[in-house]
Amino acid sequence: MRKFVWTAVVLLFLAGVAYLTLNTSKVLVTSRGGAVTEAQYMSSVTATPTGQQTFVGMVINNSLEHLYGNSVSSTEVNRAYQEQRAQYGSSWSAFLSQQGTTASQFRGQIRTQLLLVEAAKNYHKISASQLQKAYKNYTPRMNVSIITVANSKDADTVLKNLKAGHSFASQAKSHSTNTATASKGGRMPSFDSTSTALAPAIVSASAKLKVGTYTTSAVQTGSEYAIIRLNSKAKKQSLNSYRTILTNSLINSWVNNSNNTQKVQRVISRVLNRNDVQFKGRQYPALQNAIQQYLVNTSSNSSSSSSLPAPSGSSSKNSSSTSSSSSSESSSTSSSKK
């Protein structure tokens, strides 16, 4: 299953922040060779790329939280987290360990990504034609059951058993290698076609099914093969019902497109400028150089940034999440066929 695609901003934020909050006058270690102070440690750490990246990530996250924090709900973060976790089942802890992160930090990744999307929405506008195209290709929330196997031979065996009348749930429990869903008869958390936690092939195949049917051939995802059954699908509403979801999806794709790196950096520069970020740590020139690449952009583009709209997700704004659109879908979800 595909991991979330994270921007450099998120990775910077997760590098670690503890050593940047130290009281630099304190002695950390004494020895016969002399003392090591926090000031010495800070000078050493802030001269490293990791230290500089961590600092920049903290500054960016601080500004994103201040300006857009109320626009990202804990419900959104938790939904995205659970959707991702469901793909790994009992191996979730191993996955986090491989990524060098914790569950709490992973939630932080998700939140930072959502905050960056909110920021970008103010400076990168989605056209009506883009929105119409996204709506045409959009499939609202679906619930599927899945059987994942290691090779095409096992997939053929499962398909043969299903055709012979064996239930999908029984085949999932006896054959699926997905430990997160096998014991549940293969049932997965619901998702829509904008999901980035699932392999695109899974999302695409699910969207083409009719409720109660399953894929008659296995869907290959990397080295695995999947057989999918559609349990239910929400009735598609008007474009306005999904405007927020579709806009967020388009903005998220734009932010994560490597061709837009400089444009995203300019968005971040404007965010820092709006938050009145001013560097005060003159004793750490390496940190100043690291953050200056963003602050310089704001001053050099002052004429253009002055015409930009004020951030709509500032701390005075009431919380508004994509869950409002999702709730309208769930009420119209069709019944599952047994």
UniProtKB/TrEMBL annotation:
Record region (Disordered): 298-338
Keyword annotations of the record: Cell membrane, Isomerase, Membrane, Rotamase, Signal
UniProt-recorded Gene Ontology molecular function terms: peptidyl-prolyl cis-trans isomerase activity
Record-listed E.C. numbers: 5.2.1.8
Sequence ranges assigned to domain PpiC in this UniProt record: 139-232
PROSITE patterns: PPIC_PPIASE_2
Compositional bias per record (Low complexity), positions renumbered to this chain: 299-338
InterPro entries: Foldase_PrsA (IPR023059), PPIase_dom_sf (IPR046357), PPIase_PpiC (IPR000297), PrsA_foldase (IPR050245)
Entries under Pfam families matching the protein: Rotamase
Gene3D superfamilies reported for this sequence: 3.10.50.40
Swiss-Prot/TrEMBL GO biological process terms: protein folding
Reactions accelerated catalytically: [protein]-peptidylproline (omega=180) = [protein]-peptidylproline (omega=0)
Protein role: Plays a major role in protein secretion by helping the post-translocational extracellular folding of several secreted proteins.
PANTHER family: FOLDASE PROTEIN PRSA, PEPTIDYLPROLYL ISOMERASE
Family named by the database record: Belongs to the PrsA family.
Protein name, entry field: Foldase protein PrsA
Species classification: Bacteria, Bacillati, Bacillota, Bacilli, Lactobacillales
